[in-house]
Amino acid sequence: MNNQTANTLDTKDKAKFTKGVLVGGLVGAATALLLTPKSGKEMRRNLSNQTLNLKEKTLQMKDEAKLQTRLGTMAGKEKASNMMGSVKDKTSQVASQAKEKMNAMRNKNEDSPSSAKVQNDPGLPPSPEASKQTLGE
């Protein structure tokens, strides 16, 4: 058997042993509590005190869970709000850049005459306006 397998078995054995010790301790404590010679009043008082303690701990845990939930919700809302602001900023930046490019393209088109563009493009046939200019009409 290699070392890794041996270590895994040792870890499992230790975990089983620890679990057994804990369960055995709980069973022993419960047995000692119930079998000790106490009067009925004393036994009821002990059980009542333990029940009250358990109830208080449960209520504290419930309140803590509610608080953690509220804090988590608030943090989530804040994060979502920040993300929405960031998305809005990015969207407005992209939109303004697109408008700037469109305006630049429009200005470029307005500055140069359309007939000159058509004449300069060797892949297109001459436009009627270009033909009129060449014919002198």
Brief account:
The protein is mainly α and 137 residues long. The chain is 88% helix and 0% strand.
Which helices and strands, and how do they pair?
Elements: H1 3-35, H2 40-111, H3 114-120, H4 128-135
Model description:
The protein is mainly alpha-helical. It is built from 4 helices and no strands. The chain has helices spanning 3-35, 40-111, 114-120, 128-135.
Radius of gyration: 42 Å
The helix tally amounts to 4
Q: How far is it from the N-terminal to the C-terminal residue, by CA?
A: 102 Å
**How are helices and strands ordered from N to C?**
HHHH
Helical content class: over 70%
Largest sheet: none
Model regions low in confidence, pLDDT < 50 over at least 5 residues: 115-119
Secondary structure: number of strands: 0
Strand content: under 5%
Protein traits:
about 140 residues; mainly alpha; elongated
